[in-house]
């Protein structure tokens, strides 16, 4: 499956054998699900159900947790989230990351809340596929750093989802764009996405190979604004509404409206509604009942007010385009088109500003901007699967941020001269690639991986690695044995498909003169170097002639994460246990809801059923009155008790209604099907008797003796079916249509099955006719010769 996890909504797409790539509908039959989860005790609510409970259960509502993934509690992103949503949040004493507090003993990490939503996505996809779905490609913004990406991976692991790749959503959109296109010439296209929480520009080059029937999608650069999106407009409208409410009711309320979680939630919900109205109208009437302390709030917001509120954002909407072009050393004139995606572009002033900047002739909306990223993610998942064959589209993405190696020694020995940081992955380096650096050093040391200074990132230090084994290896050689005073150290670094940088391998290479012969314990670590030795053979022999060989020694790497710590193994284990309890609660709740819905639906069905004249001949007036009376009684009971009874009570009442309906339906269906099935049974018994009569004439005495058991079985099956059919037919003739039948098609089919099995077993035996010379002669003489027969095709007998 593919998942596009956004600030306000997440979407799921599925690709499976025998199924076309398409969006998965959630339990509300919607194509997207709100990125909010409401958790109260062991109960979890998603989608429309969560939104409906969000105001009443504001303190148990957790929206837009994407904003605090991979962040410390003290980070600006977290503090801004607290200011905007007013959650009850504390600092994790160990990780120093934010924790959402539900009560004095219950806390949730952002990863856990995200995991719940990923689990919901997996369950809906599994229901659609008809089998468990366990792997996914998850689309995230290209500016997600290593800590945010690791949080995504940790969240998925909590619910057993294997992440094939964390893909940049701009690259995912580009994959979707290429699905139904062929590029006769290379094209550079810029995808501009205004989402709920951010704005990105992705510059992509498309090329097609007609011979190979493949398309290459190569990301050239990204530009972005991490905090500029549709939600920024929501919060500014909410602030306007808040200010107006306090102006109207300042002296009549017990607190500021922004200090009430429930009122704050209502304001944000209303602000989003107003924004959508102003997308197509010049003004919007805002109305919130009982916003705070029982006061109803009403006001009007105009499009002019909105544009005035957001006037300072105009340059920020343009900047991602400029950044993407600058990083690729290109201009607007060099790109073929700008493709708009994302719901934020429905806001008129944003659309107008961008069209004026890039030119109407370059603007394109030839993809479904709301679903392009998730469909591209699903396509990428298919291309990574061994079971599915995807269209020939290959992706080359680039690293989210440059990565450099910083040298920091743990002992007194230092690199001489000191080494400056090495930029090992520049901004345009390929994702999922390895690079190596080499330098000379003779003792254990440490290195760090980090992003170069970036004002948009609160944390740039990624990890620190202690490299050991070098000191011991160097001390094993005398200075006169080394061709170089310092060994060469080689470090291999990977930025994997998820955008996570890690040190994979470290080794030291010694140029050794007169190495130990191959028969010694060190020989297995030696390999000849053509560049540094006259003859490799001399290093492999046991002779004592002077030679030089390259001896490689693997070094031990001990890693320590820096910045934002990932979830520990103990934290993951505790979260999984908690999820297991919640899963049981969810199943009970879903079973209860299903039982209630089934009963309600059946009550409405019965009201139509008792009026259906097709069934009137098979239901007495008393039957229909009983059904109608029970349905009305249960309907009144539901209105009085609601949904507060135990699940088995609803199931029992449903079964009671269904039993009465099923009896009437059975009488109707039996009456309709009975004649046909009676004929089929009579035919089966007749064919069985015919077979018995024929075999009695054709079998030899010995064959009759050997077949007696099978013949008796068929005879008994025929007799039993015939006797039963006669008796049941007589009984059925005495019954009215409104009485339960005794001549049942199911029993007739069971008798037919028994007769057929006995028939097939007997008919499958080999038949050898009784020997009779007279009969043979008579048959030979009496049989006329067909002159059209080929006489050469049958044997000729001179005598019988």
Description:
It is a single chain. With 800 residues, this protein is α+β, with helices and mostly antiparallel strands. The protein has three domains: 2-229 and 314-396, ATPase, nucleotide binding domain (Nucleotidyltransferase, domain 5), CATH 3.30.420.40; 403-561, Substrate Binding Domain Of DNAk, Chain A, domain 1; 573-778, Up-down Bundle (Substrate Binding Domain Of Dnak, Chain:A, Domain 2). Helices cover 41% and strands 22% of the residues. Strands 1, 2, 3, 4, 11 and 12 form a six-stranded mixed beta sheet that branches. It has a six-stranded mixed beta sheet with strand order 19-18-13-14-15-20. The chain has a five-stranded antiparallel beta sheet with strand order 22-21-24-25-30. Strand 11 (135-140), helix 4 and strand 12 form a beta-alpha-beta unit. Helix 3 packs across helix 4 (146-158).
């Amino acid at each position: 499956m593919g998942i596009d996890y956004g600030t306000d909504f997440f979407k799921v797409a599925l690709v499976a054998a025998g199924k076309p790539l398409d969006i998965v509908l959630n339990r509300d039959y919607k194509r997207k699900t709100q990125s909010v989860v409401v958790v109260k005790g062991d109960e979890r609510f998603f989608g429309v159900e969560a939104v409906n409970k969000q105001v009443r259960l504001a303190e148990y509502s957790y929206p837009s947790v994407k904003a605090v993934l991979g962040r410390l509690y003290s980070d600006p992103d977290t503090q801004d989230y607290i200011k905007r949503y007013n959650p009850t949040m504390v600092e994790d004493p160990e990780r120093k990351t934010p924790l959402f507090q539900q009560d004095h003993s219950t806390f949730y990490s952002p990863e856990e809340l995200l995991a719940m939503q990923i689990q919901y996505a997996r369950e809906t996809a599994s229901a659609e596929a008809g089998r468990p779905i366990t792997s996914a490609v998850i689309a995230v913004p290209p500016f997600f750093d290593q800590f945010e990406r690791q949080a995504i991976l940790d969240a998925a692991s909590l619910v057993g989802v294997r992440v094939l790749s964390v893909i940049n959503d701009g690259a995912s959109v580009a994959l979707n764009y290429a699905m139904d296109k062929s590029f006769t010439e290379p094209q550079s296209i810029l995808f501009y996405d205004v989402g709920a929480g951010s704005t990105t520009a992705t510059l992509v080059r498309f090329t097609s190979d007609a011979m190979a029937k493949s398309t290459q999608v190569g990301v050239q650069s990204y530009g972005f604004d991490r905090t500029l999106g549709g939600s920024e407009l929501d919060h500014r409208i909410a602030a306007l509404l808040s200010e107006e409410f306090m102006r109207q009711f300042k002296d009549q309320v017990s607190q500021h409206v922004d200090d009430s979680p429930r009122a704050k939630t209502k304001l944000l919900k209303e602000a989003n509604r107003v924004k959508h109205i102003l997308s197509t109208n010049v003004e919007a009437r805002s109305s919130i009942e009982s916003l705070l302390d029982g006061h109803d709030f009403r006001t009007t917001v105009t499009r002019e007010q909105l544009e005035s509120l957001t006037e300072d954002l105009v340059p920020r909407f343009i900047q991602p385009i400029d950044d993407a072009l600058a990083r690729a050393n290109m201009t607007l004139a060099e790109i073929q088109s700008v493709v708009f995606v994302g719901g934020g572009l429905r806001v008129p002033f944003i659309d107008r500003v961008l069209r004026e900047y890039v030119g109407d002739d370059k603007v394109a909306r030839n993809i479904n901007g709301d679903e392009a990223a998730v469909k591209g993610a699903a396509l990428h998942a298919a291309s990574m699967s061994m079971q599915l064959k995807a269209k020939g589209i290959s992706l080359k993405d680039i690293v989210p941020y440059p990565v450099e190696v910083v040298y920091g020694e743990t002992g007194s020995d230092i690199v001489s001269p000191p080494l400056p940081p090495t930029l090992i992955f520049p901004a345009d380096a390929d994702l999922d690639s390895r690079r190596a650096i080499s330098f000379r050093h003779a003792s254990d040391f440490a290195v760090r991986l980090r992003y170069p200074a970036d004002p948009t990132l609160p944390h740039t230090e990624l990890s620190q690695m202690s490299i050991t084994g070098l000191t011991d290896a160097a001390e094993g050689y005398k200075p006169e044995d080394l061709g170089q005073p310092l060994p060469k150290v080689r470090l291999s670094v990977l930025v994997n498909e998820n955008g996570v940088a890690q040190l994979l391998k470290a080794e030291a290479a010694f140029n050794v003169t007169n190495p130990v012969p191959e028969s010694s314990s060190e020989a297995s670590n030696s390999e000849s170097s053509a560049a540094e030795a006259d003859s490799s053979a001399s290093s492999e022999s046991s002779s004592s002639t002077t030679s030089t060989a390259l001896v490689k020694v693997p070094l031990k790497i001990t890693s320590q994460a820096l910045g934002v710590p990932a979830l520990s193994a103990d934290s993951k284990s505790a979260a999984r246990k908690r999820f297991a309890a919640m899963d049981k609660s969810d199943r009970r709740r879903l079973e209860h809801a299903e039982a209630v819905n089934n009963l309600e639906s059946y009550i409405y069905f019965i009201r139509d059923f008792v009026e259906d004249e097709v069934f009137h001949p098979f239901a007495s007036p008393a039957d229909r009155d009983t059904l109608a009376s029970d349905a009305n009684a249960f309907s009144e009971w539901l209105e009085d008790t609601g949904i507060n009874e135990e699940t088995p009570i609803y199931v029992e009442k449903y079964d009671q209604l269904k039993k009465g309906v099923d009896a009437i339906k059975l009488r109707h269906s039996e009456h309709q099907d009975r004649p046909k099935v009676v004929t089929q049974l009579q035919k089966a018994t007749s064919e069985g008797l015919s077979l018995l009569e024929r075999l009695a004439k054709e079998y030899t005495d010995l064959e009759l003796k050997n077949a007696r058991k099978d013949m008796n079985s068929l005879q008994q099956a025929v007799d039993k079916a015939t006797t039963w059919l006669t008796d049941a037919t007589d009984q059925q003739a005495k019954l009215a249509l409104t009485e339960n039948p005794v001549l049942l098609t199911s029993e007739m089919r069971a008798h037919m099955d028994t007769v057929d099995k006995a028939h097939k077993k007997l008919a499958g035996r080999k038949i050898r006719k009784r020997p009779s010379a007279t009969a043979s002669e008579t048959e030979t003489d009496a049989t006329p010769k067909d002159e059209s027969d080929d006489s050469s095709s049958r044997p000729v007998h001179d005598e019988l």
